[in-house]
Amino acid sequence: MAGIQLSGLVSGLDTQSIISQLIAVESQPRTRITQQQAQETKRQSLLQDIGTKLTALKNANDDLKSVLTWADTQTVTTTDDSKVAVSRTGGAAPGGYDLSIQRLASAERHTYAFTPPTADGPLTILNQDGSTRTSVALKAGASVDDAVAAINSSTDAGVYAVNVNGDLVMAAKTTGVSSGFSASGAGMGSDLEAVAGADALFTIGATSYQRSSNVVTDALPGVQLTLKAKTSGTDTVGLTVSAPGPDKAGVVTKVQAFITAYNAVVDTTRADLADKAVPNPQTNADVTAGTLFGDSGLSGMLTTLRTAVSSTVAGMTGLTSLADLGITTGAANTGATINDDSVAGKLTLDTTKLNAALDANPLGVRSLLGGTTNVDGFSQAFNTFLAPFAGTSGLIAQRVSSSTSELTDIKSRLDAFDTRISARQDFLQKQFTNLETVLQQSQSVNSSLAGYLSSSGA
């Protein structure tokens, strides 16, 4: 309302207090509407949280059947990583191999005497055959450090340069007998020491190999060898390439991720279902308590999901259910103690049993979990159970959407209520203002009449 509101100066009534009390009485229904708004907002938030966890569960379930989870892999190990490191570059023939290293590959190295040049000129790096590889320009009086900087700045030199006690030492960036080079020109003196490059010599089993690099990718197909040190005498390093198959640790990790996501849905939903309303609520938290208490839709969802994880998968033989892989709700009772997680339907994983199944029948585990092409396993079946609840068209998303519509309606009701109350307050203010005006006019007439009577001697 515009303007200044004053209490009754003529009537003596506290008009502002009267108006405030009348408005307070008429505004009581607004409290109920705001409580409905708080409850609906809480309901939407809880449903969105469940929806997020259902999405995570669907993703974890999809991982059980993913080709990435079941892609064949192999491990390559060495008995002495200090002498040779190994890594797999592709499919490798399974088995054990004995490796002996007679010599490591080394780079050619030269130590040159260096004298500052008396005139500007080039320092030239030559290839093994004597042809020019590149030249770097040196100024008259250049020091050995100037030469080192110029060589190391060149992208074509193919050598590393260092200052060793005033001598210019250069070493080839590559290794092997073909790493030879030489240098001449500005500042270059005699070649004080020349160490020829050497190829690596090693044997795998009875086969000998000579390679220019200590990183070898073509001796054992699918395996990269990084030679680090010589073996002594008849000593050998053992290399082992495993048979191709799924990454057991990776599969166990994916199964555990599914269980974690499933249990998160169970925990969150059961907590919402168990949260009871507070009689005679005094705070906003009290008002929003019990929003989803005993919700039949959510209770039905938990029942459906529990049925899905405990059922036999149609079409399977041998391994037919998650229980065969060590995935269960566990024992309901342990002695005299009740297992609340089991009663709630939360899953547990016996990793020993799952690993044993992967060792004994990896294809059976893969088929059961849904990772075999054109064979519907648990993952496909579980998605069928999950679909009515998860995703953009599932029950939870529909209820969130419905809640959004309800909140929009509540806001419209609040806006309309506030508009009506504001208009009502304006009306009352005008009514009391008019009352004051009439009373003031009445008093003015009375005063005039009394004055007139007094002056006429009446």
TrEMBL record:
<dbReference type="GO" id="GO:0009424">
    <property type="term" value="C:bacterial-type flagellum hook"/>
</dbReference>
<comment type="similarity">
    <text>Belongs to the FliD family.</text>
</comment>
<dbReference type="Pfam" id="PF07195">
    <property type="entry name" value="FliD_C"/>
</dbReference>
<protein>
    <recommendedName>
        <fullName>Flagellar hook-associated protein 2</fullName>
    </recommendedName>
</protein>
<comment type="subunit">
    <text>Homopentamer.</text>
</comment>
<feature type="domain" description="Flagellar hook-associated protein 2 C-terminal">
    <location>
        <begin position="197"/>
        <end position="443"/>
    </location>
</feature>
<dbReference type="GO" id="GO:0007155">
    <property type="term" value="P:cell adhesion"/>
</dbReference>
<dbReference type="GO" id="GO:0009421">
    <property type="term" value="C:bacterial-type flagellum filament cap"/>
</dbReference>
<dbReference type="InterPro" id="IPR010809">
    <property type="entry name" value="FliD_C"/>
</dbReference>
<keyword id="KW-0175">Coiled coil</keyword>
<dbReference type="Pfam" id="PF02465">
    <property type="entry name" value="FliD_N"/>
</dbReference>
<dbReference type="InterPro" id="IPR040026">
    <property type="entry name" value="FliD"/>
</dbReference>
<dbReference type="GO" id="GO:0005576">
    <property type="term" value="C:extracellular region"/>
</dbReference>
<feature type="domain" description="Flagellar hook-associated protein 2 N-terminal">
    <location>
        <begin position="11"/>
        <end position="107"/>
    </location>
</feature>
<dbReference type="GO" id="GO:0071973">
    <property type="term" value="P:bacterial-type flagellum-dependent cell motility"/>
</dbReference>
<dbReference type="InterPro" id="IPR003481">
    <property type="entry name" value="FliD_N"/>
</dbReference>
<keyword id="KW-0964">Secreted</keyword>
<comment type="function">
    <text>Required for morphogenesis and for the elongation of the flagellar filament by facilitating polymerization of the flagellin monomers at the tip of growing filament. Forms a capping structure, which prevents flagellin subunits (transported through the central channel of the flagellum) from leaking out without polymerization at the distal end.</text>
</comment>
<keyword id="KW-0975">Bacterial flagellum</keyword>
